[in-house]
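Re: the 182-residue chain
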Amino acid sequence: MQFRAPLMIEHRLIEKMINIINKIINQAESTHSIDIRTVDVIVDFIQTYADKTHHGKEEDILFKDLSEKRMTDQDDRLMKELIEEHVFGRRIVGELVDSKKEYLNGDMATQKVMLEKLKTLVNFYPVHIKKEDDVFFPASMKYLTNQEQEMMLNKFWDFDRTMIHLKYQSVVSELIRVFSKD
C-alpha cells in the first residue's frame, strides 16, 4: 500500500463532513437558526479528525520526513503552502469556536459569523484536499523509497492508535476543569 492511501481515505471522510456542513448551512439560512450542538459536533470532527489525526500525520510524519529530502523548489513551496493552509483551517475553527461562545453569551449577531466560518471551511477543504490528492501526494512519491513508504505507513498506524487516548484524556481533563469550578 502506498503511504498516501490512508491519507486519501481520510480525505473522503472529510469531504463527506463538508457536504453535511453545507446542508447545515443551507438549513440554518432557511430557518434563520443554527443548532449549537451541531456546531459542537462539526468543531469536534474538524479539530480531532481533520486536524489532529489527519493533519497530524501529514505534518508530524509525511512533511517531516520529506523535509529531510532534497525536494524541488516547487515541491518544497507547495509543502509549505499546505502547512500554511492547515494553520488557516485551525484559525477559522478557532474563530468559529469564539463566535459560538459569544452567541451563547447572548450576542445573536454572531450566528451570522458562525455561518460565515462554516462557509469558509466548506470552500477551503475541497480545494486543499484536491491540491494534496492531485498534486502534492503524487509529486512526493518520487522522494520516498518503497521501504520508506512502508515505514511511514507503520508510523501512521502507530499515530492513529494514540489518537483515541489523547482524545478522551482531553475530554476528561476538560470535564475536570469544568466541574472543579463548582
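The mean pLDDT is 93.
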